[in-house]
Amino acid sequence: MKKTSFKWVGLSVLLIFTLALSACGIKKEPAASPASGSAGETPKTEAVTGPLSGKRVALIMEFNTGTFSQQYVQGVKEEIAKFGGELTTFVADNDKAKMVSLLDSAINQKFDVILTDHGDSLLEPGVKKAVEQKIPVVVFDAAISVPGATVLSQDDQKMAELTLEQMKKDINGKGNIVKVWVAGFAPMERRQIAYGAFLKDNPEIKEIATFGSAQNPALDTQAKMEAILKQYPKGEITAVWAAWDEFAKGAARAIQQAGRDEIKVYGIDMSDEDLQMIQDPKNPWVASAAVDPTDIGRVQVRYAYQKLHGDQTEDAVVLNPVYVQREALPDKQISTSELSEYVKGWGGSTQGIKDWMSEYGITAK
């Protein structure tokens, strides 16, 4: 009887520990070999050997909402797989304080590498602590300034400018527009700078409504856009400018369902789901400016491994966006992995690649 009791106690403790990890948004997964398909595929595992193989990598995400995030994570997984590492993801579910706690947890667990996705300056003490402990840190899309940590970002102002200027051209420089965005996120704050300058330079373009929420962004946007469409009947809204693709999805769905085909949507960021909507001639979402999200993940990992290798790395790395519009795309449905055939500059970034990485099958060719 005693032996049986101890067995059940042990199983109970294991179950409680497993549930606790799940509740904290922690997901541990073995390294996977690169895949050329969609983010939903599970690549096969391959053994990788080399002086940098076997490293434990923590990815700490503020949120993992939408297909952009899924493809970004896929890029992280693929590149870590090439180096033979092991990835553990920590998701804060849009809770910045929780993200700080997860960062501290990763430091205390002595991960070999720490990557962060979004967040804000609240992360700075933790990032500084990690750097002081010689843990390589590469930040994506957060306004953080810590010597020794590399901050990776998209050229957010340029993305905003690309979409706003095309919108201006399409509406002949005048009209009423709706803006969807949310404060408190470094990339959207940067996009807002370009938006503010644009409105100042184009007084005949009027903002008549603005809203946005990071919680369930696509659904929230759709509901609020439906209300705005009722408030402003046909002819009173010319276009919608969305500072994030999740916002663009919601706005486009509301407009399409309402049959308001006079309104066009312009967004930022790109995923396979976004591309499918933009290619649909009946969809109001006609264009977006973006960096390949899979590339973002790959480049972030490369800079982390540069640090592990002892290379000198830049404090700031900026990824150049491209403009994707329906007119440039084929009639047949394509994925973002095929987008480079139609949009110059999309995908296949060689940023962060060093000659020594050829040992791991990573080359600029």
UniProtKB/TrEMBL annotation:
- Signal sequence region: 1-22
Molecular function terms, GO-annotated: carbohydrate binding
Q: Is-annotated flag, keyword Signal?
A: yes
What subcellular locations does the record give?
Cell envelope
Annotated Pfam families: Peripla_BP_4 (PF13407)
Give me the Gene Ontology terms describing cellular component.
outer membrane-bounded periplasmic space
Record keywords: Signal
- Record domain Periplasmic binding protein: where: 57-311
The answer to whether keyword Signal applies is yes
Q: What is its main location?
A: other
In the record, the note on similarity to other proteins reads: Belongs to the bacterial solute-binding protein 2 family.
Protein name (database record): Sugar ABC transporter substrate-binding protein
The taxonomy runs: Bacteria, Bacillati, Bacillota, Bacilli, Bacillales
